[in-house]
Specification:
The protein has 292 residues and is mainly α. It has helices at 2-45, 49-54, 65-74, 79-111, 117-129, 132-145, 152-159, 163-176, 179-187, 192-220, 224-229, 238-246, 254-276, 278-289.
Length: 292
């Protein structure tokens, strides 16, 4: 009986090890598949224009990254720096305003009872399902009516509306702001605005970092709306600016290298944002997953 038990235990151990090895192998292959384009971009950004054309894409050659980076910021009188600043303004300010509006709307939907609340929330959920591409043309027509196309506001204002952010904020408010605390504050004479700014926002703040990050990435990667709205290249975000360079590579081959280096540089702000807010982002995800 003891021998049979040991045999079964050894078999179970071998089976568990095989399953673990298979899972690790699968995850390794998946990681390599997803990281391969990043590796290619890193290698391509270090090559000269000649090496980029004449050498295999995944093989490093002579190091030209410093020269490529300098050429990137010299091209067209440094227009890439302007594009980068525009993207930071669109994404940073837009995500901050969108987070504030989403927090207020989500808090109201979670903590106040009023006629039509569930209908309003259903409409907001419907907005989550509408693709951004379907809204680009109607937004263009609306801004054209007030002669506001080709302006900073034509890209910024649509970016501060986030139905998904409102949905997440409602979940976070319901999970992290107890009704008892709100009632206690009301009994102490605090107004609704004071309760929201002094209690609600503070309790929701770790979770709202998640809303900010989602919206920051969405705005940063936004391409179609600026393409429809803008004609002045001084207002372009980095995504649209690099696209315009890419369309000119047949006439100016040097722009191919600059586009690749610019794409690598444009990833840096997103990575830094995630690294700086990583601690709060994890806390926000936990707040949305666990409800006391």
């Amino acid at each position: 009986m003891s021998l049979l038990t040991r045999t079964d235990g050894a078999h179970a151990t071998r089976t568990g090890r095989a399953s673990t090895a298979a899972a690790v192998a699968f995850m390794t292959l998946a990681a390599c598949y997803m990281l391969l384009p990043v590796y290619w971009l890193l290698v391509a950004a270090t090559k000269s224009q000649g090496d980029l054309v004449d050498t295999p894409g995944l093989r490093p050659t002579h190091w030209h990254f410093g020269a490529n980076l300098a050429a990137l910021f010299r091209q067209q009188d440094g227009v890439f720096a302007r594009w980068l600043l525009n993207s930071l303004l669109y994404a940073g300010a837009g995500a901050a305003v969108a987070t504030g509006l989403s927090a207020a709307a989500g808090y109201a939907l979670a903590k106040y009872r009023f006629p039509g609340r569930e209908l309003l929330f259903s409409v907001i959920l419907g907005g989550v399902l509408v693709p951004a591409t379907a809204l680009a043309l109607p937004l263009f027509l609306m801004f054209a009516e007030v002669d506001a196309t080709n302006t900073f506001w034509s890209v910024f204002l649509p970016s501060v509306v986030s139905p998904f952010g409102v949905y997440l904020s409602r979940v976070f408010a319901a999970a992290s702001v107890p009704d008892e605390v709100i009632e206690a504050a009301r009994m102490d004479g605090a107004g609704e605005l004071r309760i929201f700014t002094g209690i609600g926002l503070r309790m929701m703040s770790p979770a709202l970092v998640t809303v900010f990050l989602f919206q920051f990435v969405v705005i940063w990667n936004n391409f179609l709306l600026p393409l429809v709205m803008l004609q002045d290249d001084g207002l372009y975000p980095v995504t649209l600016g690099l696209y315009t360079w890419q369309t000119q590579t047949s006439r100016l081959p040097v722009l191919q290298t600059l586009t690749l280096v610019g794409a690598l540089v444009s990833v840096v702000p997103i990575v830094l944002t995630f690294l700086l807010l990583q601690r709060y982002w994890r806390a926000g995800l936990s707040a949305g997953a666990v409800k006391s």
